[in-house]
Amino acid sequence: MHPARLLRAAKEAEKVGSRLYLPIVEAIRVDHIQAARDAFESLDSVDAFAVQVNAECDNLIKILESAQHLEEVSRGAENKIISKGEKLACQYMAALLEDRGCPAQYVDLSDVIKRYSVPQLVKESAYKELAKALGQEVLACGDKVPIITGYFGHVPEGLLHSIGRGYTDLCAALVAVGVQAAELQIWKEVDGIFTADPRKVPTAKLIPSVTPAEAAELTFYGSEVIHPFTMEQVIKARIPIRIKNVMNPRGPGTVISPNPVVEPLAVQALDRPSLFRCRSRPNMDALQAPQRPTAVTIKHSIIVLNIHSNRRTRAHGFLAKIFSILDKHHLSVDLISSSEVHVSMALHSENSMLSGDNVDVIEDERLQDAVTDLAELGVVDIAANMAIVSLVGQQLRNLKGVSGRFFSVLGENNINIEMISQGASEINISCVIWARDADRALNVVHTSLFQFLE
């Protein structure tokens, strides 16, 4: 069940005197029982499932009533409301499998943190304890197929706000660690990770395998792969992750492999960090540079914030003051480019920060307050309707000629570059362009670079 209906019910519960959440809950109740009648072969199975649905819906109403009494839906209450959708879906699947003769067991993980006395999930050690607890819950099912809820209890700031909608992937990752799985499979609506978005680039190819660093970079810069924190839990346990398509189960998918053979330098860097990076010829040759980048991706909803210093030479602490202001107003920077008296920063937001016919009105209160504070340091201007185009690949810096070709192909196709960022990451070259050119940039970069380097 999509969480939109549950969130709508929560919104109604916040309104004093409103009872409009009741019809929403009743619709959820009717839909699930009707789905069982349509799919189940045994009437006894339908009746047993209806009892479960009624119990969950009755409990949901109590939660909504409590929230209305308090005139607030807290993060914890929101978690409980959202979890009802998962519980009903899991109960339905377990009942369906049992109805068809396949032994299955519904596993409700909503109170696993309390039952196993897992510490508050603010330290890495707590997630290890949680993984162990989840593993025990699953292994207790024996030969039955475990049908597990993605919701595993309240976390600080709430699951949706601290982890996002990918918290079910995190739960799967922790279960994989807990049972010491041979592989974690994440099933999505795409065949895996492609060299570019196949919906926009017809020539995009499926990538057989990527490194964890590449997957994290692709996720950050626009490709919906897997949350880096989720991936980290599994990779540290040396468990590979395979991205597969629910509509194409026979497809090989893309593997995110922790195998040190795939990324020996990254593993060495983590084990033996060094202050100085040696770039002598022997070391450069040993890097075994790839033949081409791994993928190109686009990140939309970008604005560029430019700050021109009031002074001819940069005052001490200029950058520190800028980032202190951004931190104060909870604004994160995706890319930064700076000179002696000028700083350009690319900021991303899922919600529109600007409005107006010419996108010249600041809607976001955080951005408005930040601009006001930054104006004390110099002249501030904003460029809206931008996008980040990123070239991602392991040891990309050592692929000769790739940077020149990347920027040249954009220029040859009359795509203006607003700012460039390279050097902070070994596996990423990024630049900011106008959003109107984004799809065209994706195609020309993919076509030129991937054919040029093959």
TrEMBL record:
Q: What pathway or pathways are given for this protein in its record?
A: Mycotoxin biosynthesis
Q: Which reaction does it catalyse?
A: L-aspartate + ATP = 4-phospho-L-aspartate + ADP
The terms describing its cellular component in GO are: cytosol
Which InterPro entries does the protein's record reference? AceGlu_kinase-like_sf, ACT-like_dom_sf, ACT_Aspartokinase, ACT_dom, Asp/Glu/Uridylate_kinase, Asp_kin_monofn, Asp_kinase
A single GO BP = 'de novo' L-methionine biosynthetic process
Keyword annotations from UniProtKB, A to Z? ATP-binding, Kinase, Nucleotide-binding, Transferase
What Pfam families does the entry give?
A: AA_kinase, ACT_9
Instruction: Give the top-rank taxon of the lineage listed in the UniProt record for this protein.
Output: Eukaryota
Keyword field contains Cell wall biogenesis/degradation: no
Q: What class of enzyme is it?
A: transferase
Domain ACT residue range list: 391-454
Q: Is Nucleotide-binding one of the keywords?
A: yes
What is this enzyme's EC? Answer: 2.7.2.4
Q: Name one GO molecular function term.
A: aspartate kinase activity
Family indicated by similarity: Belongs to the aspartokinase family.
For this protein, the record's PANTHER family field holds: ASPARTATE KINASE, ASPARTOKINASE
- Name of this chain's protein: Aspartokinase
Which organism encodes this protein? Trichodelitschia bisporula
Organism taxonomic ancestry: Eukaryota, Fungi, Dikarya, Ascomycota, Pezizomycotina
